[in-house]
Design brief:
Layout lengths: L24 E5 L7 E7 L2 E11 L13 E8 L15 H17 L9 E10 L4 H15 L9 E8 L2 E4 L3 H4 L5 E7 L4 E8 L4 H37 L5
Helix pairs in contact: 2-4
Length: 247
Amino acid sequence: MDRFDFVSPEGLRVDGRRPAELRQLRCKMTPVPAGDGSAFLEMGNTKVLAVVYGPHEPTQRSARDPDRAVITCEYQMASFATGERRKRGKGDRQSVELASLLRQTLESVILTELYPQTQIHCFVQVLQSDGGARAACFNATVLALADAGVAMRDLLATCSAGYLEGTPLLDLNYLEEGGGGPDMCVGYHPTTDKVALMQMDNKLTVESLEQVIELSTHGCKVVAGFMRTTILEHTQQMAAARGPVRL
């Protein structure tokens, strides 16, 4: 069997991108009007829907916190999201772990002290997965929170990077994630220039680790610029639809 090359001699990946090139980003704000905020995000062929409900009265009195909002998160991957057709319940281990990681990260991003005795519920579903679903879920949820008008300390932009065949690769697709190399997911605050999240599968040498962190942080900065532009354009559209303010 011939060896599969993830990077060609010309320096191109299997989908035609350069090693440090992101996939195309697209976003539609407020695709679910029934929610308080929502976003449909595409990172290449990975498609994610995030919906935010709240801040609202907690569904359970025991979940009420007098000093801050309680953040709850629910993650699902649709059974048709990948070529492997199987039922994925919201209670499977991967879904629980990602929902927990999302909740812990958002608790440090959202100004929960501004919403005491309330609950903010974030629902995110992967509709199509072609790699980078974890990063896409975080980005879509932050955009949905912005759509809901939830106050945050800073934007959280997330991007993945990996290391295959001696080459750092940005924004891994499905084939590259299955290549057996390390896969790192980094969450970045663009205003404060701080890393808020770092999660990695497999091991790396110190030299390679530094390269992957630098590459993923660069990707986060590009994603952050896209998110800011998306939020600004959406705000301008909402302002134009409401018309001039009369005092």
